[in-house]
Structures are given as C-alpha cells and as structure tokens.
Amino acid sequence: MRKHQLDLFSLIAGALFTVIALVYLVAALNDQSVNGRVVIPVAFIVLGAGGLAGAVVAVSRRNRDRDRDRDRG
User: Fold this and answer.
1) pTM value > 0.85
2) Three-state DSSP class for 51?
3) pLDDT at 68 over 70
4) pLDDT tens for each residue of 7-20
5) CA 56 to CA 49: how far, in whole Å?
6) How far, in Å, CA of 38 to CA of 41, rounded?
7) Contact criterion met (CB below 8 Å) for 15 and 6
8) CB of 9 within 8 A of CB of 54?
9) How many CB atoms lie under 10 A from the CB of residue 47?
C-alpha cells in the first residue's frame, strides 16, 4: 500500500467529533446533560485551530519540497 501524507485537519476534526460523541454518551449514561453553549464554541475553536495547523503544515511541506527540488536541479 502506498503511503500518503497526513491530513492534520481531518485528524483533528475526527478526534474532536469522537470526543464530543463520547462526552454525550457518558453524560447520557450518567443521567447528566451537556451544555451546548459550551460544546459548540469549543468545537468551532478547535476546528479553527486545526485548520490553522493544517495550513501551516501544508505551507511547510510545500517549502520543503520546493527546496528539495531546487537542490536536485
């Protein structure tokens, strides 16, 4: 199988939604409630940070690949 580059944003988003699902599951099992006024802003903040981190990684990869191609050529 061919290796592929890590998609940091997708990894962070998947982990976030898994954690949110687990929080709601644990709350339901313990007859508690989850305050959506906290969950939704935290989700947006984490997704924004994940997008920023993904963009920074993509730019650094592009620069690294460009430098490697320049050194070869």
Assistant:
1) no
2) helix
3) yes
4) 889 999 999 999 99
5) 11
6) 6
7) no
8) yes
9) 15
